[in-house]
Design brief:
The complex is a heterodimer of chains A (122) and B (473).
Chain A lengths: L1 E9 L1 H28 L3 E6 L5 E3 L4 E3 L9 E10 L2 H9 L2 H4 L4 E6 L13
Chain B lengths: L2 H24 L5 H22 L5 H22 L61 H9 L6 H11 L5 H8 L3 H18 L8 H23 L7 H19 L5 H15 L24 H14 L34 H14 L8 H14 L3 H13 L3 H13 L7 H13 L3 H14 L3 H14 L1
Helix pairs in contact in B: 1-2, 1-3, 2-3, 5-7, 5-8, 6-7, 8-9, 8-10, 9-10, 10-11, 10-12, 11-12, 12-13, 13-14, 14-15, 16-17, 17-18
Classes of the chains: A alpha+beta (122), B mainly alpha (473).
C-alpha cells in the first residue's frame, strides 16, 4: 500500500458562476464517494479549496492568478491508499463527477522514503 | 420459469466460475472472454438439448464436456487460421462427441472422463489436485483460486468486487448492477476493462504461486469484506439476495481461513462477519423498519454464530496478547494489538481484528446499557492509529459519548462539522441529532435531524430519521 494524492481539477470560472448550491451538490457527491472509499480502506482525507487565490512569484503577487481562467484549476484534493499508480488511477476513474465529465483528477504517489525514485512501482 | 430453466439457472450459479477457470487453465489459448463465450454457449445448448432429450444423468458433467469440446474446436480453428482465433463458435449444437480425446494433444493434462482429477462435478470431490499436480500454492478450492485471480492489483477494489461477483459468485450483470447501485452499462464497462487487464497480463487462471497468493491476500480480504458489506448494508432493507450475498462471503472466507493461504487476518475477518451475521435477524422490526443496536431484541441474536466468532477471533490474535479471554470477555490492554500482521504503512491491514473485537464486545453485552464502552473506545483509538480518517473519527466520537466522555465526543463531532467534506455527511448530523436528543435538547436535536434529511435521499434512511424525529416530539 502506498499513499496517493488525487488532485481535483474543475473549471473554476464555471464553479464560481454556478454558485454555492451547485458547489455543495458536487461536494455531497464527493462525500458519498469518500464514504465508499473509506469502506474499502482507501480513504485517508481530503478537502475542497476556496476559489480566490494568489499566485506568488519572486517579484509579485497576482490576484487570482491565471488559474481562474484555466479550464482545469485545482479545486480540491483527496488522499488515498492504493496498491500502485494503476490502481489509484482506477479508483479515481470511479469518481462519479469524473464519470459525468465535471472534473478531472490528477493522480500521483506521495513520495516516500521507501520509494525515493518515485517511479510508481511499489 | 419452468423446472428445466430453474435447474439450468441453479447450475449456472454453482458451475459457471468453475467451468471458466477449468477452461482457462486447460489452455493458454483460451482467455477469459473466449471461455465466457464458450460456457455461455454450453448453457444455451443445454436448454435446447435437454428440453428435447431430457435432463442427462450428470448435468454438470454434460456442461463441462460440451464446453471442453467447444474449447478444443476453438483451439483447432485458431491453429487452422493462424494465431488469430476466430470469434465464431464451432458446431452448432455442440455435443460433438469424441471431438477431444486423443486429438490435438500437446500434453494437456485433461483428466480421463470421470476421473475427477480436475474436480469435475459429480465426482464427489470438489477439486483435488490434477494428475499433473498443479501447484496452487496450497488452495484446492476452484472458487478461491478464481477469487485470487480477481484480486488483480491494478483494478480498483470496486471493480475487483464486480469481477468477483461475476466470476466467483456467478451473479448475472443485472443482479450485480442492482446490488451495487450501478447501471448495467456501467457494470459491463467495468467488466470489459477488467477483462482487458486480465488478458494483457496473462497472469490469471494459471495456478497461482504461493508468492502471488500472499501478495494478493489483503486484496482478497478486502473483496470479501466489501461483498459482505454490500449484503449487510442497512440502506437496502430486507431483500433476500442480500442475505445470500452475506452467506457467499461467509462461505468463501471460511474456506480461505481453512486453506493454507489464509492467515490470522482471514480469521479476524471471518469473526467480524460472524458477529455481524449473528445479528442479521434482529436488524429489522415488525414493519421492516431498520433497528439500531440499542433497539434490537438481543434474544434474536444467534448465539451459535457468536460463539463461533469468538473462537475465530481468539485464534486470529497471534500477537501474543490476551485481548480475548477464554471466558468470553474482552480485555483490551494498551499495545496488545500491535503485534503480527499490522502493516507498517498503517493501511488498515489488520483493521478487521479491531473491528471484529468491537463487534464482539457488542455481541457479548447482555444489554445496550451493559456495553463495555471503555474497551470499545480503546479499540477505536487503535483503529484510528491504523486508519485515520474522519469516518472512523465519527464512530470513535459516538463511542466516547456513550462511554460518558460527552464533551470530548462533542468536540470531535463539531470539529468534523467544520470540515467541508464531512459537513455534507448525513450520518454526522444523524449522530449529533441523537446525542442532543439523548441530552434532552429537543431544539438542537430537531435541527440536526432536519439537516440529516436534507442530505439523504434513500427512503429507508429517511424513514429511519423520521422515526428519530417522532421520538423527540
Amino acid at each position: 500500500m502506498q499513499k496517493f494524492m488525487l488532485i481535483i481539477r474543475e473549471d473554476l470560472a464555471e464553479l464560481k458562476r454556478n454558485g454555492d448550491a451547485e458547489r455543495y451538490r458536487r461536494m455531497r457527491v464527493m462525500t458519498a464517494w469518500a464514504e465508499s472509499l473509506q469502506e474499502s480502506v482507501n480513504f485517508l482525507g481530503g478537502e475542497p479549496l476556496e476559489i480566490p487565490r494568489r499566485l506568488v512569484t519572486k517579484d509579485q503577487v497576482i490576484s487570482d492568478g491565471p488559474f481562474i481562467e484555466a479550464k482545469e484549476g485545482i479545486s480540491g484534493f483527496i488522499l488515498i491508499n492504493a496498491e500502485n499508480l494503476e490502481q489509484a488511477a482506477a479508483i479515481a476513474q470511479g469518481c462519479p463527477l469524473v464519470q459525468q465529465n465535471l472534473m478531472a483528477i490528477e493522480v500521483s504517489a506521495v513520495l516516500s522514503r521507501n520509494n525515493p525514485s518515485g517511479d510508481g512501482h511499489a | 420459469m419452468d423446472t428445466l430453466e430453474t435447474e439450468v439457472d441453479r447450475l449456472y450459479r454453482s458451475q459457471f466460475g468453475k467451468m471458466l477457470s477449468s477452461l482457462m487453465r486447460f489452455s493458454d489459448e483460451i482467455d477469459l472472454e473466449i471461455a465466457e463465450d464458450i460456457v455461455q454457449d454450453a448453457f444455451s445448448a443445454a436448454l435446447v438439448v435437454w428440453r428435447k432429450d431430457g435432463l442427462p444423468v450428470n448435468p454438470a458433467g454434460w456442461l463441462f464436456k460440451v464446453s471442453r469440446n467447444r474449447a478444443l474446436n476453438k483451439i483447432r480453428e485458431a491453429k487452422k487460421f493462424g494465431r488469430k482465433s476466430g470469434a465464431q463458435g464451432g458446431d452448432e449444437d455442440g455435443v460433438g462427441e469424441g471431438a477431444g480425446e486423443g486429438e490435438g494433444n500437446r500434453g494437456w493434462d485433461w483428466p480421463g472422463e470421470g476421473s475427477g482429477g480436475w474436480g469435475w462435478p459429480g465426482d464427489g470431490n470438489g477439486g483435488g489436485d490434477g494428475p499433473g499436480g498443479r501447484n496452487s500454492g496450497g488452495i484446492e478450492d476452484e472458487q478461491l483460486i478464481l477469487l485470487f485471480a480477481c484480486a488483480h492489483p491494478d483494478l480498483a477494489p470496486k471493480v475487483q468486487v464486480v469481477v468477483s461477483l461475476k466470476y466467483v459468485v456467478n451473479l448475472k450483470v443485472e443482479a450485480i448492477a442492482k446490488i451495487l447501485g450501478l447501471t448495467i452499462d456501467g457494470v459491463d464497462k467495468m467488466l470489459l476493462r477488467a477483462r482487458q487487464k486480465i488478458r494483457d497480463e496473462r497472469i490469471l487462471f494459471k495456478a497461482p504461486s504461493t508468492a502471488a497468493l500472499q501478495s494478493r491476500l489483503a486484496s482478497v480480504h478486502k473483496i470479501l469484506y466489501l461483498i459482505f458489506n454490500e449484503g449487510y448494508k442497512s440502506s437496502w432493507g430486507k431483500e433476500l439476495i442480500r442475505e445470500e450475498l452475506c452467506e457467499e462471503a461467509l462461505i468463501m472466507t471460511r474456506a480461505l481461513s481453512r486453506s493454507k493461504a489464509g492467515n490470522e487476518e482471514t480469521r479476524a475477518l471471518y469473526a467480524l462477519m460472524l458477529f455481524n451475521g449473528a445479528r442479521i435477524k434482529a436488524r429489522f422490526g415488525k414493519e421492516g423498519e431498520l433497528l439500531d443496536l440499542e433497539e434490537q431484541d438481543r434474544s434474536l441474536w444467534d448465539q451459535d454464530l457468536i460463539r463461533l466468532a469468538m473462537v475465530n477471533l481468539e485464534s486470529a490474535n497471534g500477537a501474543g496478547g490476551d485481548d480475548y479471554g477464554a471466558g468470553g470477555s474482552l480485555n483490551v490492554t494498551e499495545g496488545s494489538l500491535n503485534g503480527a500482521g499490522v502493516n507498517a504503512n498503517g493501511a488498515g491491514i489488520n483493521s478487521y481484528y479491531i473491528e471484529a473485537a468491537i463487534a464482539g464486545l457488542h455481541c457479548a453485552a447482555e444489554s445496550w446499557k451493559a456495553t463495555d464502552w471503555e474497551a470499545i473506545i480503546k479499540l477505536y483509538k487503535r483503529l484510528l492509529r491504523l486508519q485515520a480518517n474522519p469516518f472512523v473519527e465519527l464512530n470513535y466520537a459516538i463511542a466516547l459519548y456513550y462511554g460518558t466522555y460527552k464533551s470530548e465526543a462533542l468536540e470531535i463531532l463539531h470539529g468534523l462539522e467544520r470540515q467541508a467534506l464531512m459537513s455534507q455527511y448525513y450520518l454526522l448530523y444523524a449522530s449529533l441529532g441523537r446525542i442532543y436528543a439523548a441530552e434532552g435538547n429537543k431544539g438542537l436535536a430537531k435541527e440536526y435531524f432536519g439537516r440529516t434529511l436534507q442530505l439523504t435521499s434513500s427512503p429507508d434512511e429517511i424513514a429511519f430519521v423520521q422515526r428519530l424525529i417522532n421520538k423527540v416530539e
